[in-house]
Here is the input.
Amino acid sequence: MGLVQRAYHMDVSNSVDVTDGEAVSGAVSAMLAPHYPGLDFPTMAQLFTDFTLLYDGAYPGYHGCEIRYHNSQHVLDVTLAMARLLEGHARAVDDNARLDDTMVMAGIAAALFHDSGYIRRLDDTRHSNGAAYTRIHVRRSAQFLAQYLPRVQLDSLVGIC
Here is the structure.
């Protein structure tokens, strides 16, 4: 029995297309819904939509992703891994020891926007490519989240993510 080849665009389980934000969003929601029925799934879907807009260059005020590795596929793969960790934790502990919905949403938001600091603003004329922010992209990602999260009524996550 030989090894099954995995296409470049598929996750490690070869079941989710990590180049498709909607596919990852659906997989994440399906994974978490049984354990977190009160989670705000419409807002989570909005996070995925805005992430896609940001990386595609359609989010107001921003260029798209200009970096080969820290691209949308990488981020969606990381986000899927985060959801699997959250699901695994929920399965492994008693209901009273589970993370609350706020922490689950923070985990997904942090995973989705962990490399947003590489994305340049449209008015950024200092650098011709987001790779110039490698050394400070984590801080820039936190700054992006601090500005973005209140726009989607997730003010409570600022400082957590």
In short: The radius of gyration is 16 Å. Residues 72-92 form the longest helix (21 residues). The chain is about 45% helix and 0% strand.
